[in-house]
Write a structure and sequence with these properties.
The chain contains no helices and 27 strands. By secondary structure, it is an all-beta fold.
């Protein structure tokens, strides 16, 4: 394990300092607004773990990461399993294998957890959601291939609200489907397009403490905010590289203050916003070194400590950042 700290600060301009054993990056994109005065988040690189392979602690396409009650959960996409680690990256357990049966996966692409620790996995090419207890024991499943209610073409990261309802995006059909905790279809919203409330290749979803739902609208390079019943509320983002702009917003997570963390996949960074879309900060870089990211997809936040876990998909690893203020 590497436990050097990589300080990432945000100033006007761009500079790079490197020695043989220390690497510091200062990243700034031009912006016309300042971060909120009540938000002063700064993050430092802490550690990383993982490599390509099939052994415990190795990955074959990790697209997501989540944190719950002292453990880090990673869907190991093409190894058809979920791996569980402690916060330092030590392997603890795994569940799942390739197949179509209960508890088996055909590309485990994403997961979320409810307040009781139940785990919901997007079993991508079995076109279903599977539900497990906190120890990985199978509970139930639902879904089939198609475009009807309760059907999927490319199910992606599900999100849970305080009542246990599950919001599931589908990258190949522009809608959000809502289910009970046991998989009963409730309703859906969304259609293809660029207008308010429309979607293009939606990826992740997340729910804040008020029950509002946020969607990473990947194809439209924005994040959209909806009420719990699907009423459009607001949006932020456009295509670009500046603060608050995106090139492929993919993963979403949320901290105890309802700040929204967005993996900006093709800009190789994570951006942080208030729940009203005001830019706060960013971290990660696309150069090289310990804190670099390549095509990051998933992100998870430990709400107690503020530690951020990033699924650094292009580098086949999990990268960890800690708040330093």
């Amino acid at each position: 394990m590497i436990h050097k700290f990589l300080a990432i600060s945000f100033v006007l301009g761009y500079s790079l300092l490197m020695t043989s054993d220390f690497f510091t990056t200062k990243i700034v994109a031009q912006t016309t607004s300042s971060p909120p005065t009540n938000q002063n988040l700064t993050f430092a690189y802490y550690t990383n773990w993982g490599s390509a392979g099939e052994e415990d602690g190795q990955f074959d396409g990790q697209n997501d990461v989540d944190y719950f009650n002292g453990k880090v959960y990673v869907p190991d996409y093409a190894n058809h399993r979920i791996q569980i680690f402690d916060p330092e990256g030590n392997f603890l357990a795994k569940f799942g294998e390739g197949g179509e049966g209960d508890g088996q996966f055909h590309k485990a692409s994403a997961l979320s957890m409810d307040s009781e620790g139940n785990i919901y996995v997007a079993d991508q090419f079995n076109y279903r959601i599977q539900k497990f207890d906190v120890n990985g024991n199978f509970i139930t499943k639902w879904g089939s291939e198609g475009t009807g209610d309760g059907q999927f073409l490319h199910p992606h990261v599900p999100a849970n609200d305080a009542e246990g309802k599950l919001f599931v995006t589908d990258r190949d059909q522009p809608s959000v489907q809502v289910f009970s905790p046991d998989g009963e279809f409730l309703h859906r919203w969304g259609s293809e397009g660029e207008g308010n409330g429309q979607l293009s290749n939606p990826e992740s979803s997340i729910v804040d403490s008020q029950g509002d739902v946020y969607i990473a609208d990947y194809g439209n390079n924005r994040v959209q905010k909806f009420s719990n019943n699907g009423t459009y509320l607001s949006q932020w983002g456009t295509k670009g590289t500046a603060n608050g702009e995106f090139q492929g917003p993919s993963g979403l997570s949320i901290d105890k203050d309802d700040n929204i963390y967005v993996t900006d996949k093709n800009n190789n960074r994570v951006q942080v916003f208030t729940n009203n879309g005001q830019y706060i900060t960013q971290f990660g870089n696309s150069t090289f070194g310990e804190g670099s990211l390549l095509d990051p997809e998933g992100v998870g936040v430990d709400k107690e400590s503020g530690t951020v876990y990033v699924a650094d998909t292009g580098n086949t690893r999990i990268v960890v950042f800690k708040p330093i203020n």
